[in-house]
Amino acid sequence: MQYLNYEVQNEIGLLTINRPNALNALNSQVIAELSEQVKEIADSSLRCLVITGAGSKAFVAGADIAEMKDLAAQQAQDFSEEGNQVMKQIEALPMPVIAAVNGYALGGGCELALSCDLRICSENAVFGLPEVGLGILPGYGGIQRLVRVAGLSQAMEMAFTARNIIAGEALSIGLVSQVIPAEELMEKVMKMAERIAANAPAGVRAVKKVAQASIGLSIEDTYLLESELFGKCFLTADQEEGMSAFLEKRKHAPYTGQKKM
Ligand code: CAA
Q1: Could you give the CA distance from residue 188 to residue 61 in angstroms, rounded to a whole number?
Q2: Which helix (H) or strand (E) holds 6?
Q3: Domain boundaries defined on the chain
Q4: Which of 111, 157, 187, 220 is catalytic?
Q5: What is the pLDDT of residues 99-133, one digit of tens each?
Q6: What is the fold, at CATH topology level, of the domain defined by 4-197?
Q7: CB 216: neighbour CB atoms within 10 A?
Q8: pTM of whole model > 0.90?
Q9: Which CATH fold would you assign to the domain 201-247?
Q10: Which of 19, 65, 111, 161 for a ligand 1 pocket mutation test, highest count of atoms within 8 Å of Cβ?
């Protein structure tokens, strides 16, 4: 991979967009590499994935403006569809995904962060959807996801005005769940990932499915899904061990994600 670093430790993946000279802007090559890497992650037993940007200045400063500038309309539509596809792949990953936003998250960068389940940012992070200032609109699903995360009026205000917001405001509108001093960001995010990874994977993955379904499905259908997944947890050794440990007043053994014998 030319623009991605990917490492796994203790079933936690760290995926870094590594194109710091262009503030990690998403060109077609980055998008293609992301698609390939995310496909591989989807089939893995990873407990949690963290996505961040290389360097101290940017998470991702958007889709690559130099590459987009001379696109014909159909090429631009394809460019948007390819990016959208990757954002959907990330969103659909079965394990929790945390965006560690370490600086600018503008345009496609904000949209990439929004395709993750959680966003934790450094104090120097800046978010925005500057696209209308460039003569276009956000093209990687940012409006739809921001509406769901922060509400219709906050999303439309950000997208209509193309105004950047800093970390504190992002926290106040619910775009991020925590703001951390820059030098502590990765340590704190990895600690959260470890905490998630220590929980029973069937339960964690089921939480993600039900939370996401609660946006698209009727509430009745989400109750059905929830009960089905609740039942499936009882196929796992982790459920047996977790409940036995509680009743025996001891610490549970590490969860394995294995089926009951
Ligand atoms: N695309 C291509 N190159 C980019 C880029 C982008 N989105 N963002 C930054 N760069 C490049 C700059 O061109 C510059 O390259 P050179 O050194 O070769 O000149 C390098 O990264 C460093 O950037 P700056 O010199 O501009 O750094 P700065 O500190 O002065 O400013 C910034 C930082 C405010 C983030 C500024 O770079 C900026 O405004 N970037 C563009 C942000 C933007 O508009 N993003 C939305 C893109 S459109 C989009 O994403 C569409 C979509 O939804 C699919």
Answers
A1: 23
A2: strand 4-9
A3: 4-197, 201-247
A4: 111
A5: 999 999 999 999 999 999 999 999 999 999 999 99
A6: 2-enoyl-CoA Hydratase; Chain A, domain 1 (3.90.226)
A7: 8
A8: yes
A9: Lyase 2-enoyl-coa Hydratase; Chain  A, domain 2 (1.10.12)
A10: 65
